[in-house]
Amino acid sequence: MGLMRSFAGLLIGLPVVLTAQQVGNLDAPVVKPKSYVVYGAEPQSVAAGKRSVLELHFRVLDGYHVNSHTPKSELLIPTRIELQPAAGVKTEAVEYPVGTSYSFSFDPTEKLDVYTGAFTVKLPVVAEAGTHTVDATLRYQACDHAACYPPKSLPVQVIFTAK
Amino acid sequence: MKRSGLVFGVMVVGIALLLWAGWHNLRERRLAMQQAQENHVVLVPEKAGSAAQDSQSPEAEAMQMRGKVAPAFTLATLDGKKVSLSDYKGRPVLVNFWATWCGPCKVEMPWFEEFRKQYAAQGFEILGLADDVDAGKDAIAKVAQKTGVTYPILLTDGKIQKAYGGPDGMDYLPMSFYVDKNGVIVEETAGLGSKDEIEAHIKKIVASEATAAGGQ
């Protein structure tokens, strides 16, 4: 009987032990950055007076995504570059990379078209000889797996030399 | 002697089965917990200029709306009708900021509609504040219709985002403020929570007692 009582005690105690091991903390605070895309500025050289392509390198911070230039819904805000006129530089239409397919885990049916990690935007130019700076703004709207962030503007300076 | 041996054997097998079941249950729950953690995020509002990594900074603390009286507002609905938070004095209200470009926002809106009907008898109401700078009324109305919501959708004016979100407005969406019958924000959530979590917050404000001095 003593043996049986011991087993009974073990059985009663078992669920308590199991439950205690399941407790976790889901409320750990997560602080969000103010910017979700960074620009990797690097001086470039092109041939003067000839059509050349400048590359603008961006990186979306880990854990986030931004809509591509061609998101799959008209309600989504596309990533785009707004260029300021620069003396001695003629710019052509910006070439955007293709996005990758993405779905939120809570809504696998809706397919989004996004940029994650590094992405490169190409800017065709024809420039006079000399050093030039093209001021631009990257407009984007980022989300992570559970929240979305208001549209942002990232100032960009494209510095290059035409020889 | 044989009978005791048989009983002991049955008990050993029973214990073994229970231990296996317990281990299996624990494993399943751990997987579920892991999944829940991956899909769950609690965001801490930050103020412009605050240290990005310092969640305990005074600025971050100052942005918490919990325990404060909900800032008053009067905004227009999609059809031009003026709605004030004070219209719901003595009633529990969920103030939800959302946007047409916000996927997580659109997931919880049908849940809100469901809870609105479920707790209507207790006076519960939801006000959906569209935090859209560029979207027109048509786009907002289209999303509202698609998500099936019938609660008032209000057009924001730029000021209300600052009153609830700080000098720069809302840092992220969805953002919800659970206002009790006394006009006090008892819960503030950022990002998509679980349906159960949302209902628990609603139950909290529905259960609150209205006081004579309170109200929106």
Automatic annotation (TrEMBL), chain A:
Coiled-coil boundaries: none
Q: Which UniProt keywords apply?
A: Signal
Name all Thiol:disulfide interchange protein DsbD N-terminal domain ranges: 46-153
InterPro entries the UniProt entry points to: DsbDN, DsbDN_sf
Pfam families hit by this protein: DsbD_N (PF11412)
Q: Could you confirm whether the keyword Electron transport appears in this record?
A: no
The leader peptide range reads 1-20
- This chain belongs to the protein called Protein-disulfide reductase DsbD N-terminal domain-containing protein
What is the scientific name of the source organism? Tunturiibacter empetritectus
From TrEMBL, chain B:
Q: Which residues form a coiled coil?
A: none
Instruction: Report the main location listed first in the record.
Output: other
GO MF, one term, reads: oxidoreductase activity
Tree of life domain: Bacteria
Please indicate if the UniProt record lists Disulfide bond as a keyword. Answer: yes
What's a single GO BP term from this record? cytochrome complex assembly
Under the heading InterPro entries, the entry gives:
AhpC/TSA, Thioredoxin-like_sf, Thioredoxin_CS, Thioredoxin_domain, Thioredoxin_ResA/DsbE_sf
Q: Where is the Thioredoxin domain?
A: 64-207
The keyword Nucleus belongs to this UniProt entry's keyword annotation: no
The subcellular localization recorded is: Cell envelope
A GO CC term assigned to this protein in UniProt: cell envelope
Q: Which CDD domains match?
A: TlpA_like_family
Q: Which UniProt keywords apply?
A: Cytochrome c-type biogenesis, Disulfide bond, Isomerase, Membrane, Redox-active center, Transmembrane, Transmembrane helix
| Membrane spanning residue stretches | 6-23
Q: Give the PANTHER family listed for this entry.
A: THIOL:DISULFIDE INTERCHANGE PROTEIN DSBE
- What protein does this entry describe? Thiol-disulfide isomerase/thioredoxin
Give the organism the record lists: Tunturiibacter lichenicola
